[in-house]
Amino acid sequence: MRPSVAIEGGLRLFLLEDEGILFSEGHQEVYALNTPATYVWCCLEEGMTPDQTSAAFSSSFDVPRDQAAQSTGDLLSRWQACGYIRGIPDRGIPDTVRSEIDWTAALARLLASSSLREEFAHSPAALAKKLRISSADRKAFVALRPAALELEALRLQKAKSSKPFENVFKSGQFVLWSSKAGKGRQSILQAAADARARHRGRMNRVRHYRLLTTTFAICFSSVAEEARVHPALAHLEVEPARSDAVLEVLNADGGHVLLNGIAPFAFCQDLGRVTPRLKTSLLQTAVHRHSYFLEIHAGVVSNGQKCLLLPAAPGSGKTTLTAALAAAGFHYFSDEVALLEEPDLEVRPVPISLSVKSGALEVLAPLFPQLRRSAVHTREDFETVTYLNPPTASFSYSLNRTYPAGWIVFPQYSPSATTELRPIGKAEALARLMKEVLVVGMTLDTRIVQSLVRWIQRVDCYELPNSSLSQAVKLISNLLKGPQLTN
Q1: What sign for the dihedral angle of Cα 328, 329, 335, 339?
Q2: Is 245 contained in some domain?
């Protein structure tokens, strides 16, 4: 009998319905396992050998032994290559029950496993055979340079361990619209110095805003700058108070320099580009100064008791749907950021103004007629947007507390889609949610991941393909006003 497989330390499986969440503390990664993969991992935890696992898989899922052997063989081979398990000799998973993999999959395994990179450095050809790389890709695989692999693995490790904003903020780099500024094409630093000297003692146009726990003073050097920026932030304005952060907009020779404290972070050649960059800096600074567990790219609305998360990639219709829900009477929390806070992973409102792209303008104009009269701005990605402040009624709640999440809905607009809410499994929902995580605010450990699994067990999860905004709003309205509200 072949020996059982050893699971590496720092790995923990959390059961979620009939699927699983696998957490690797060493890799600081969370993986969703489907039902068959969860079953195989549970067999490993029970100390079963590969042969015993294959036989049990065949019996439990009512599949032929050869198919069960291939499925379990592929999983064990992949997990061993990633460094999650050990103790399977080359002959432990016969080639006849393992699928071939392509060059991309092989490269991913190399970058994830230091032991595989050691084997590759010793003999690329032997490892290519061991991993069963397809013959069409084997030549490209063995041509990889071991030193380049180590450098790339190190780069990826550093990228995963750093927060995107902190990486820019702490390194002293500046996020620039242009590396040169002004008619004389001087550097942004020189343009900032010249503009500050020109306006010293004359920055008397100051507005105060509050987002999360940060009070901002934004100083303008001209009426035109103030008139362009303020409408996008007006709902966040507060009475003059001691400021935690100071942002400045300085008219420069040939444009406008933006500063956060003493550091210039953008040069804009025209006023149409100022507001997006200032809004981004304000949001990033407020989030950076706040304590949280996860920052998720999502729209968020609330029924006053629980909130709904709308995680989605750009272009999914997330902002349009969030705006329409705010118009329907729900509380507006954000169209782009959901902050989950310890210890209960409740959601903190981040009510920055909604960024309405040109394609959604006519769709939302019947709900918000002021959009047709609002200024047009150009973002860093060259998208043309109009900023929409939340309706007064949707903004009448306490900003100084968190709210439990009741629902997660993944929207996806498509002109040909049938608009419907479809329940999805908790493990799949968590895997999709992780794809929209912008920043993890702390080092993951077993306790934190366990709290995340418990959290999503309490949340109802759906996907929402849609082609009709009104139907999508009706479905979500029924969801938020339904029986769940009384639980």
Answers
A1: negative
A2: yes
Report residue 215 CA to chain centroid gap: 26
Structural domain contains residue 1: no
* Residue 168 placed within a domain: no
Q: Same structural domain for residues 313 and 452? A: yes
What is the full per-residue pLDDT of the chain (487 aa) written as tens digits? 455 678 877 888 999 888 888 888 877 778 888 899 999 999 999 988 888 999 999 999 998 998 898 888 888 877 876 778 877 655 444 444 456 776 666 777 777 777 788 888 988 888 888 777 878 778 888 888 888 888 877 776 665 554 433 322 222 333 333 334 444 445 555 555 565 555 555 556 899 999 999 999 999 988 999 999 999 999 999 998 888 999 989 887 778 888 887 777 888 888 999 999 999 999 999 999 999 998 999 999 999 999 999 999 888 999 999 999 999 999 999 999 999 998 899 999 999 999 999 889 999 999 999 999 999 999 888 889 999 999 888 887 888 889 999 999 999 999 999 999 999 999 999 989 988 988 787 778 888 889 999 999 999 999 999 999 999 999 999 999 865 443 3
Number of domains, the chain: 3
CATH number at residue 365: 3.40.50
- Structural domain containing residue 452: 294-486
The two tokens of residue 225 are 């700058």
Return the number of other C-beta atoms located less than 10 Å from residue 297's C-beta: 19
